[in-house]
Amino acid sequence: MTGPAPRRVVGEIPAYVPGARPSSAPAHKLSSNENPYPPLDGVREAVARAAADVNRYPDMFAAPVVEAVAARHGLTPAWVVAGCGSVAVLGHVLEAFCDAGDEVVHAWRSFEAYPIAIALQGAVGVPVPVDDAGRHDLPAMAAAVGPRTRVVLVCTPNNPTGPAVHAGELERFLDAVPRDVLVVLDEAYVEFVRDPDAARGLDVLRERENVVVLRTFSKAYGLAGLRVGYALAHPDVAAAVRTAATPFGVNHLAQVAALASLEAEEALLARVEAVVGERRRVLDGLRAQGWPVPDTEANFVWLPTGRRTVDLAADAAAHGVLVRPFAGEGIRVSIGSPEANDRVLELAATWR
Q: Is the pTM of this model over 0.85?
């Protein structure tokens, strides 16, 4: 380049790979962990009405959403920070607490945005392999915490493998982590969790000042196209994250949709229950075929396809099913409509 050169890290970070989108041919899109149901009629109507006001800036800190979320969780608004999806909020957390060269411990494979967000902040990622069951190895992650560690990321349920961290192991992990290290519990899929032993961030948030819980409206609430996420944290921590947040980061239509979705929560969670039922059916079907599928508490399943991954994903696409391959490791398949899930089981059977 003869003009301005970007930072070196920009050329070194791994590219985020989005889920494949349908081309001209119809296909079941199971590549992005989206809710297979469209927004409720009441949510769509609220967004349509709000469209008349898009010439105005939204509330800068999404205060109406923050207040509603705080009330839902039994907190005050000082504990809540909203942002343009939980990924953006995570970026603000790292901006607020990491200087260049600081370390961020995280499981791997886990959410692929983690290494990108860490590197862009100038921090150093310390990946710790998940175990053979796709679970976080929390003792190994605790052992990886060193003098430069500022943040630890725990994705529960883990994306893309599916298992959730259990409450007892999380408590032991938090006891082992220094109090000046921030532990971020990424709970993007928490509404789909049915394991009675699974950890819940709200159970530890109030007692531990170094815990941050990330949540999103993208998955269970079906607002992936509008990008609304939030962090729950002790007020001092939340204030720092809020300072780093992008002004007007949550657009007006997104705020309106989030509020309408909270008001329609009973109907939305009934849809979540339907997804959980389909998840159980797909998981049982795959295991009956002989697939060693990890336990999943999210809205997806993980197929450990190893060296065949890219070829099998291409075969799925050729048969009208879009999945998310992780080359050399496995395929993540989102839970879709019953018809889409039937096609997944049919394809998986041929792959065996």
A: yes
